[in-house]
Design a protein that fits this description.
The protein is α+β, with helices and mostly antiparallel strands. Helix content is 30%, strand content 22%. It is built from 17 helices and 21 strands. It has helices at residues 17-29, 38-44, 79-92, 148-157, 173-178, 233-236, 268-271, 282-289, 328-331, 335-346, 353-370, 380-384, 408-428, 487-501, 524-535, 537-550, 559-564, and strands at 33-35, 54-60, 67-74, 95-99, 120-124, 132-136, 139-143, 160-161, 206-215, 220-227, 244-251, 253-254, 257-263, 291-297, 304-310, 319-320, 375-379, 395-403, 437-443, 472-480, 505-507. The strands form 4 sheets. Strands 16-17-13-15-14-19-20-18-21 form a 9-stranded mixed β-sheet. The chain has a 5-stranded mixed β-sheet with strand order 1-2-3-5-4, with helices on one face. The two termini are 24 Å apart.
């Protein structure tokens, strides 16, 4: 589905590898917009709403592996203009793809091979769909184009916040809700959940949403508001790009001050030890604080462990931070890392993966000390958001293993042991499929009671949809550079291990999954059977039927979604 050979290229003459990586990140982060010739636009898109400006735009996903050049795009001024554009698209045989920050990996927005001649219209949300207001002391109304950083900044200004959030602040709210984005948090030992908060995904905070849907009586697409108590809302809470949501109302709660302590002195063998082991295990930190993340660079022994804890007052050892992104050494690619990546990509020197892993660990360990960021404290936003678009662009796969809280250490131990063994086996053959890291987070599930709304629906397609015998999710991601040889075969083994070992495994929608020996999002058994079965046929079919009924003309779809979201 994706031609990775295009990534094996040398840096242009006169450019440093570091400069090349920075430029590539910048190009991927900002859409290229070219004003449209009105005559050309009128000829190619006859009848397009005159009050909505058209332009040509390139599409790039996070790592630039899914690209499309010269697509028609627009940025409606408000929800009603979105509705007008969608209704035009239906009548004209076009498809509409909502675009926020394009901070994703999977082909949920645009599929590889989409071109300027295809009737695909990008609708940018970040330009105008960015309204923010308080409906009450515990409800915020937000346009879906608002970024997570802007949302959290607004909440902070009113003494409000979230328990957890994804690390990148550039994500749009609409994009985050479409794929059940999450942070990392479970209740610490003795911790009582605060009103207006959830340990599940952002989708679990939705009280109502407004979407463009088909109205059979009107014979047109219309704006309709769905309350969380309505059955149809359950499919829209995590819609995977199969709908267009323009605005949401979220339940929020009182903000918290968080302390984040980073350390790189615990061996993986101890942190990820077998369940019941003594010492500094991941379970020990979860019990103490409930909020952890482990970043384990390939071919290293000491993970970067972050531990957040609720701390109303600043601990004496902590540095007070008043803004997010407090790890500058990971925001901008350091020279040593850039040089190694450049050699690996341009010279096919993939055997340098162990050197790169240790360089990344060294940069993190030294950077934490040099920037005084190993122990920071502040309002939740300022410790939870830590990833800028200027960071190293890298591929990621992702899965959630739903289990009991008491089994988290066992799951982590078994997975990391299998990963370590297979990585060593590949290396013994001269193969180095991973040159990034393993990232481990732990969250609660999407318990509808968190919405504090009687009759609240559970998100149908959220990976955190509750299942019998589970109260916790272990999120497992493996990161590696685009174009890395043998990566797909290796990740296919990991995926098979998870699906065979843990009945509660679900895919992380925005990342890589359904691997074959040489590709991703391509294994027919995973796409057609395993993924739907992970939700249950009744739940899956209900979601698909609802999304099809709300958009029977498939205006909000693409070739990938057409093949995945089908009834069983």
């Amino acid at each position: 589905m994706t031609d990775r050979s295009a990534n094996n290229f040398p840096a242009p003459d006169g450019w440093s590898r570091r400069g090349f990586l920075r430029s590539a990140a910048a190009l991927a982060a900002v859409p290229v917009l070219l004003a449209a010739d009105p005559a050309v636009a009128a000829a190619e898109l006859p009848g397009f709403p005159a009050d909505v400006a058209l332009y040509r735009s390139a599409y790039r996903n996070w790592v630039g592996e899914i690209t499309a050049d010269g697509l028609w795009a627009c940025a409606p001024a408000d929800a009603d203009q979105v509705r007008t554009v969608v209704d035009w698209a239906w009548r004209s045989g076009w498809r509409v793809r909502a675009r926020g920050s394009s901070h994703g990996w999977s082909p949920l927005t645009v599929t590889e091979g989409t071109g300027a001649d295809d009737k695909v219209l990008l609708v940018d949300t970040r330009t105008h769909l960015t309204g923010l207001s308080l409906d009450s002391g515990s409800q915020v109304r937000a346009g879906t184009g608002v970024t997570m950083e802007a949302l959290l900044t607004f909440l902070e200004g009113h003494g409000l916040g979230l328990t957890a959030t994804p690390a990148p602040g550039d994500l749009t709210l609409g994009g985050a809700l479409a794929i059940d984005a999450h942070g990392t948090a479970v209740p610490a030992d003795g911790e009582q959940p605060l009103p207006g908060h959830t340990y599940g995904s952002l989708s679990n905070l939705v009280l109502s949403l407004t979407a463009v849907v088909w109205d059979g009586d009107a014979g047109a697409y219309v704006l309709r508001t769905f309350r969380r108590t309505e059955a149809d809302c359950a499919a829209l809470l995590t819609h995977l790009g199969r709908a267009f949501v323009t605005e949401v109302v979220l339940r929020v709660g009182t903000n918290s001050n968080l302390r984040c302590v980073s350390r790189t002195d615990i061996p993986a063998g101890e942190l990820f030890a077998a369940a019941g082991s003594g010492g500094r295990t991941l379970d020990r930190f979860l019990t103490r604080s409930g909020r952890v993340e482990a970043i384990w660079f390939a071919f290293t022994e000491y993970p970067w462990l972050k531990e957040w804890s609720v701390a109303p007052a600043r601990p004496l050892a902590s540095r007070h931070v008043t803004s997010p992104y407090n790890y500058p050494f990971s925001d901008v690619v350091p020279t040593v890392v850039a040089d190694l990546v450049g050699r690996m990509v341009s010279d096919a020197a993939w055997y340098l993966a162990p050197v790169l892993g240790n360089a990344q660990l060294g940069v993190a360990a030294l950077g934490l000390v040099a920037t005084l960021s190993s122990d920071i404290w502040g309002a939740s936003k300022n410790t939870l958001l830590y990833l800028r678009p200027t960071t190293l662009r890298i591929n990621a796969n992702g899965y959630a293993v739903l289990t009991r809280r008491a089994e988290v250490q066992r799951v982590v131990h078994e997975f990391t042991s299998f990963y370590r063994e297979r990585l060593a086996a590949y290396a013994a053959l001269g193969r180095f499929p991973v040159n990034g890291s393993v990232e481990i987070r732990v969250t609660g599930l999407d318990e509808p009671a968190d919405a504090e709304l009687a009759g609240a629906q559970v998100p149908l397609l959220s990976a955190l949809r509750p299942r019998d015998g589970a109260d916790t999710a272990v999120w497992l991601d493996v990161l590696t550079l685009p174009g890395t040889p043998h990566a797909e075969a290796f990740l296919r083994e990991l995926e098979g291990f998870l699906f065979e070992r843990y009945e509660g495994t679900r895919v992380e929608w925005s990342k890589g999954w359904a691997y074959t020996e040489s590709d991703v999002w391509s294994d027919e058994e995973v796409l057609g059977t395993t993924v739907p079965a992970s939700f249950g046929s009744a739940v899956w079919d209900t979601a698909v039927e609802t999304l099809d009924r709300l958009d029977p003309h498939r205006v909000f779809s693409n070739g990938f979604l057409d093949g995945v979201l089908v009834r069983h």
